[in-house]
Input
Amino acid sequence: MIDRVILIVMDSVGAGELPDADLYGDKGSNTLGNIMRQSEGVVLKNLAMLGLGNIDSRLNIEKHPDPAGSYGKAAEVSPGKDTTTGHWEIAGIKLQQAFPTFPQGFPAELVEAFEQAIGTKTIGNEVASGTEIISRLGDLHTATGYPIIYTSADSVFQIAAHEEVISLEKQYEICAAARKLLTGKFAVGRVIARPFTGKSGSYVRTANRRDFSLKPVGTTMLDVIKDNGRHVMAVGKIEDIFTGVGITEAVHTKSNMDGVEQTLAYLKQDKKGLVFSNLVDFDMLYGHRNDVQGYANALQEFDNRIPELLEAMKDSDVLLITADHGCDPTTSSTDHSREYIPILVCGKHIRKGIDLGIRSSFCDIGATVLDLLDLPIGIEGTSFKKEILSQ
Output
């Protein structure tokens, strides 16, 4: 009955603090709810129509009297609050141990090994905001040619370089060298290329970011779908997050709206399986920069595209919209936040107005995707197919 699932991750659009949020310094975080409370002129009528406001009154979105989809939220089991952890759990992997973080910067032995591997010195090596550090160290970088390395509260090794000082190809080579080096106790979740352009006083990051993740440590829903002869079509940074494992074809994107366009392009094709899309602007451009109104406007922009997605769907399609963690721009922190993620499911064969409640793991999403496609659930998680699929 269901031939294709379209799974869209609104990167960082969290749905309220998890019970253990205080352990992560995130008490009071509610990315979606706080944005809707503090922003102006934003009405998410299409997401509300699907049931987003019915999930929790604290999201500050009007509850719909007759939602067009099923709705709920999911708690994260794995330790952490980063992109890799969230996406892996959605796909069926529960981590037992968090990826390492470096709140004091990277140890000298690691930096020295990295510099030797790439044949040049580096600058930075601190916990910093990406936009702030290129503003502060950009001139030194352009003068010396030394790449800027930095981290955050997440398990990341970030490398910033001006595209006219170090070519994109070379930047990606440097990141690949770092990824090869960062194993064992240094096995961060992601190495991230952070290219920028511009001149002194006006440096800006470009859309040529690239993530270099660890390979998944177990079987994911992507593997199951691919191994059963179906297509796994990755949009945005999905290919990077899963290092291409379990993916049959992929396209990278420049923005949220490009991500929607690429998703729509896949919907025009007649391929059975999964379209897995990540919309990163929410997180990268607005969450980490504490830009409340910018984040709200991006939500509005996505909301406006929902009718196009619904119109492009076939009767045998299911649309599932979720997130991977929070990144509340209303708090003093510029890092991710430990939050529930929303679940919205709709399609011709999906029951309307079903409250899925609080799912005990993000893995339930992956298990449901496999179950909807009538594939074996060879991953962690409990499917909610029976609750949402009409007879």
The CA atoms of residues 176 and 272 lie 33 Å apart.
